[in-house]
Amino acid sequence: MKLVYDVVEDAYDDTTQIRTMTEQAKLPSGDWLIRTTVYTPHHISMDVTHVRQNKNRKNLFKALR
Description:
Largest sheet: 4 strands, antiparallel
Oligomer: single chain
């Protein structure tokens, strides 16, 4: 299964050279995956959160366009 992620937030700090990016993807079950990635000059870290379906919402967050 290939997921399509929408970028929610993408920020870069020139001083620390750290970039953070948060994305959301809807699963076929209606649940959501939220993926946050932190890029630094020395390493990359990632956190993925599974959010159960809320029948009253189309998106959890408004995606950047």
